[in-house]
Amino acid sequence: MVNYPNGRLRTHSTVPKKKTQTGPSVTKKSISKTKGIVAFGKRGMNFEGEINSTNDYYLSHGLAVIHKKPTPIQIVKVDYPQRSRAKITEAYFRQASTTDYSGVYKGHYIDFEAKETQQKTVFPLKNFHEHQIVHMSNVLSQGGIAFVLLHFARLNETYLLPSSRLITFYYEKNGLKSIPISYIREKGYKIETNHIPRIPYLEIVNKLCEVQ
Amino acid sequence: MVNYPNGRLRTHSTVPKKKTQTGPSVTKKSISKTKGIVAFGKRGMNFEGEINSTNDYYLSHGLAVIHKKPTPIQIVKVDYPQRSRAKITEAYFRQASTTDYSGVYKGHYIDFEAKETQQKTVFPLKNFHEHQIVHMSNVLSQGGIAFVLLHFARLNETYLLPSSRLITFYYEKNGLKSIPISYIREKGYKIETNHIPRIPYLEIVNKLCEVQ
Which of A209, A17, A212 is nearest to A101 (CA)? Predict the structure, then answer.
């Protein structure tokens, strides 16, 4: 198999991400994060940022190739000023039809969504749209590895919950609007956060691969 | 493994795609396609549309879960009109750092880029950015299946070229700006287009899985 040095990829993959954190660009996620300033300020980097930096680490160390998908946007109007690049002048955020993160790890297809909450005892189900649940179910049917990373900001606890457990809860506990943290602790895996990489979720994925 | 009926996913996954083909929204791809009106008009549906409809077919028949990633966009200004949703008023197209399509098929991670040309004897390499080449190389290193779908619009011929072959050509034939069609015919696989699905590329992917 051909394997070339990949020093240049890091530049490409990190530059846009850095821009979304510090530059003038705005993403749907960073907008919603301004509502949760407590967690953002306390921890120095938001949950999404920590996952992105973890994925950068995995990529640059040749451990996995996992990327965040771009935010889906519906474009309505585009201007083409002479001698400069196309400028979008009217567009709207669209709901994602799949999950945010996907990639490949030791041949396995990896698919996950990452969410955080300010709640201390439950994780609100409104964080997941039904078509995301259906997408995760489809991924499992094709032999992929699907999960959610759930961060309780005020507890500073992060869990990996396999999608099969989320799906079961979603359909069987139809009346409930939230997952109790006890269910997540029982059916999921706590991720001990590190300095580098911040959220070493592949350690848990290794366990999921063994189970399969 | 939990496996729920997935009738609703099709609705979600196809609506945005249909909008990009017939509605007021504009994507980077559809803009560039207006330059190639010949192919667009002749064939009723452009190459990207045919691949999307193929993926819809694979998804709805439970054969594979493969999606096109959203076009990456850098957002500069967002308005928040009262009582209505956020409106993006200044944004720009960004170069994709990975390939356009990815997903899972029988447990395998699938990753590909699809491009068409008006040339008859060569496929211009400018269709692929270097970081896309590096991304495909990373995917191969992790045991994923990576390839490009190349469509010669005027010949009405479509080929699947494994990324390993593209990468070899890209680095070893550094002086050349195009891949001769003879190389693609020798190292790639011709895809016989169908009525449904339009571009049955999974038949070739089955062969690639056997080789691995």
Answer: A17
Taking an 8 Å cut-off on Cβ atoms, the answer to whether A73 and B76 are in contact is no
Which segments within A46-120 are labelled E, that is strand? Answer: 65-68, 73-79, 87-93, 101-105, 108-117
What residues of B are in contact with residue A142 (Cβ under 8 Å)?
64-65, 104-107
CB pairs under 8 A between A and B: 208
pTM, rounded to two decimals: 0.79
A71:B76 CB<8 A:
no
Q: State the pairing for strand pair A122-124/A108-117.
A: unpaired
Query: Which B positions 60-119 lie with beta carbon below 8 A of chain A?
Result: 62, 64-65, 67, 69-78, 85-94, 97-98, 102-111
Q: What is the CB-side half-sphere exposure of residue A84 using CA atoms within 13 A? A: 6
List A145's β-bridge partners, or say none: A110
In this structure, which long-range contacts are made by residues B162-166, counting pairs with CB atoms below 8 Å and at least 24 apart in sequence? B162/B187, B162/B188, B162/B208, B163/B111, B163/B112, B163/B136, B163/B137, B163/B139, B164/A1, B164/A2, B164/B140, B166/B128, B166/B133, B166/B136
B78 contacts A73? CB cut-off 8 A = no
CA–CA dist A55, A50 (Å, integer): 9
**Burial zone of B21 (CB within 10 Å; 0-12 exposed, 13-18 middle, 19+ buried):** middle
ipTM > 0.95 for the complex: no
Q: Are A109 and B109 in contact (CB under 8 A)?
A: yes
In tens digits, chain A (212 residues) has pLDDT values of 444 443 333 333 333 333 333 333 344 444 443 343 333 334 457 999 999 999 999 999 999 999 999 999 999 999 998 878 899 999 999 988 899 999 999 999 999 999 999 999 999 999 999 999 999 999 999 999 999 999 999 999 999 999 999 999 999 886 789 999 999 999 999 999 888 999 999 999 999 887 65
C-alpha separations of B36 from A82, B20, B65, B121, B122 in Å: 21, 17, 29, 17, 17
A9 and B138 within 8 Å at the Cβ level: the answer is yes
